[in-house]
Amino acid sequence: MTAVRAFRGSPGSRTHRRCRARRWAVALLAGSSLWAAAACGDGSSAEVAASAPTALTTPGPPAWKEPSAYTYTLTSSEGERALLGTFRVTVRDGEVVEAVGLDDSARRFVRDRPDRVPTLGDLVRELAQARRDKAHTAEAAYAADGHPARITLDWDRNAVDDEARYVVSSYKTLGGAAQPNE
Known about the structure:
This protein is 35% helix and 27% strand. By secondary structure, it is α+β, with helices and mostly antiparallel strands. Strands 1-5-6-7-2-3-4 form a seven-stranded antiparallel beta sheet. Helix 2 packs across helix 3.
């Protein structure tokens, strides 16, 4: 797998150019879709733009504070790490109080390392650390309320399997717990 992975990422290779072209095509399609929705939708363009996750272009996070209690689903993929799979996570007072593995990899991780399932705050701190360390890739997209919806990390462009991709879904604050942690 290492040889295949290294070839796939080799600059100048046909596969590398195809991957880069696909990324540009996806970005173009996403931008065009947002433009079309803004132009043709019932809501104003500002409402449409605010409802879609947006890529963060500055080093700092948006004005979102981690609530004291919430649930979310985390899909962690990429790289050779222990934290892989899909998890349903419940957080109270900045600590994970319940984590349920929704697939075999996640169930194994929760069984072996239940204290290592991250909060959204942990993921945001990991992103900030990657940016401080000048990682090759440290990108995030945020939901309209500011919580992270996707985080993509790659510490070293030339290293194999050091990537991390986190996708956050089904995020919900719990009962009157909309007060952020300070």
